[in-house]
Design goal:
Helices cover 40% and strands 17% of the residues. With 161 residues, the chain is an alpha/beta fold. It has a 6-stranded mixed beta sheet with strand order 1-6-5-3-4-2. A hairpin with a 2-residue loop joins β5 (129-134) and β6. α3 packs across α6 (147-156). The two termini are 15 Å apart. InterPro entries: Thioredoxin-like_fold, Thioredoxin-like_sf, Thioredoxin_domain.
Length: 161
């Protein structure tokens, strides 16, 4: 796992709204209205960042290729879709943000632009790439063998949730 510095974190938070900055004079970008199939996950980065800040909550950002990436499907099935992970998310009030790069699923231009912009800012090189943000700390992770318990332990060992 990689630990990121405060300067990178500040850059990231200030960039959540940049994709939609074309709406001159409006600090609130238009909302992403694309449907998301993963229960409990958001796909609107602006909304996720507002929830994170409002509730002082941890944020998990999952860069995924949901319809083609084998490891993305594996982490979803073995970790994210489990009752143990969902209970941990609820207990810790974790905000979940999925940034998907599908090959066959249609997405709006707004969603595609947001996801591309954030992938560039986070320097995503492959999928799945997962960032966990809490306060001023940011870590990067991915698939961890051993199911939700192992994944949660690896995250909690590197960042205070």
């Amino acid at each position: 796992m990689k630990l990121y510095t405060l300067s990178i974190l500040l850059f990231i938070f200030s960039s959540f709204s940049i994709v939609n900055a074309q709406t001159a004079g409006n600090s609130n970008p238009p909302p992403i209205t694309d449907k998301i199939s993963n229960e409990g996950w958001l796909n609107d980065a602006h909304k996720a960042s507002l929830l994170m800040e409002k509730n002082n909550a941890p944020l998990i950002i999952n860069f995924t290729g949901s319809d083609w990436c084998g490891w993305c499907k594996k982490i979803k099935a073995e970790i994210f879709d489990t009752a143990e992970f969902k209970a941990w998310v609820k207990e810790n009030k974790v905000v979940l943000l999925e940034l998907d790069f599908p090959r066959t699923i249609q997405q709006s231009d707004l969603l595609k632009a947001q996801n591309q912009s954030l992938a560039q800012q986070f320097q995503v090189k492959g999928y799945p790439t997962i960032f966990v943000i809490k306060g001023k700390e940011v870590i990067q992770t991915g698939y961890v063998k051993g199911g939700p318990e192992s994944w949660i332990k690896s995250v909690e060992a590197n960042i205070e949730i």
